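Q: What residues go here?
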């Protein structure tokens, strides 16, 4: 129903014993309201108001859908579900008037004979030709025109603005602006996703740049160390290739290789040095030992000559004795 409702009259229906007129004309502008909100304490007829509008258009009251609920209502209301039981009227009535003064006027069934209750489709008192097509909206009327208890609960439980907008859009979005909003939200989501991806890519690139800056600093530092190393030890370095210098890992490998070679040469030289030091320390002992050996040899030769002479003398003595 794309027409605004100007007035609703309810008489002897549910909680309304007497005629109640509800007009939805703005006091200041005199225009019919686009959206009507009903607020009142408990027990003031809000539920009956929604029941009246829903029943007048759809012949039913959604919240009384199950059989057990109807039986309970019939028991409490003395077989009257729709008509106010305290009213002297024979039936209840609901009249809906739109902004062009077209009318839907429906009465409840009179309870007669063996009727167990009046919860039935109403009798049409009057309906303007311009509103005849409303019967084709019976299944969707409450969804697109009324925001009753269950829908209010769903609305209040929607914690985000998007959720509340989704619940309300069927009430006001005749021009399908919600579809445009959905497209915008989708595009925004894609753009936001792309933004996050680009932000992530930029951070990665910045990290890589910082890595290259660090590597460049390391290359310069290593070159300086190698240069100082070469100056100290007099070793000609082979790290002059520009491509090699651009790769820190290769530079480090070459540096470690050169360092290991130098360490080996150093250890070899230190070994030879220690050997020479030991030789120098034992040289004087060697000279003394050599002189002692020479003296002993001379003494040995003299002793051997003396022995020879002594043996000859002994032979001569033995000979003289014989």
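A:
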């Amino acid at each position: 129903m794309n027409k605004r409702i100007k007035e609703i009259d309810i008489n002897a229906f549910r909680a309304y014993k007497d005629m109640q007129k509800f007009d939805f004309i703005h006091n200041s502008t005199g225009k019919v309201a686009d959206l009507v909100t009903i607020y009142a304490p408990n027990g003031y007829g809000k539920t009956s108001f929604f029941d009246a509008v829903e029943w007048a258009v759809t012949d039913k009251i959604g919240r009384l859908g199950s059989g057990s609920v109807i039986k309970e209502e019939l028991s409490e209301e003395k077989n009257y579900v729709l008509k106010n039981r305290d009213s002297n009227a024979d039936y209840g009535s609901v009249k809906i008037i739109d902004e062009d003064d077209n009318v839907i006027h429906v009465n409840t069934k009179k309870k007669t004979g063996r009727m167990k209750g009046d919860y039935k489709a109403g009798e049409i008192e009057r309906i303007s030709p311009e509103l005849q097509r409303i019967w084709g909206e019976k299944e969707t009327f409450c969804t697109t025109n009324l925001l009753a208890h269950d829908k209010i609960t769903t609305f209040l439980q929607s914690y985000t603005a998007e959720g509340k907008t989704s619940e309300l859009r069927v009430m006001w979005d005749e021009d399908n602006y919600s579809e445009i909003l959905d497209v915008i939200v989708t595009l925004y989501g894609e753009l936001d996703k792309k933004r996050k991806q680009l932000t992530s890519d930029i951070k990665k690139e910045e990290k890589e740049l910082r890595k290259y800056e660090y590597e460049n600093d390391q290359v310069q530092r290593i070159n300086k160390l190698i240069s100082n190393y070469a100056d100290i030890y007099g070793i000609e370095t082979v790290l002059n290739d520009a491509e090699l210098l651009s790769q820190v890992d290769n530079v480090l490998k070459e540096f470690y290789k050169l360092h290991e070679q130098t360490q080996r040469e150093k250890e070899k030289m230190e070994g030879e040095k220690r050997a020479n030091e030991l030789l120098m320390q034992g040289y004087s002992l060697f000279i003394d030992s050599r002189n002692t050996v020479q003296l002993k040899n001379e003494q040995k030769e003299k002793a051997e000559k003396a022995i020879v002479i002594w043996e000859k003398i002994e032979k001569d003595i033995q000979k003289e004795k014989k």
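A: Context that may help when evaluating the design: Residues 242-321 form one domain. The radius of gyration is 58 Å.
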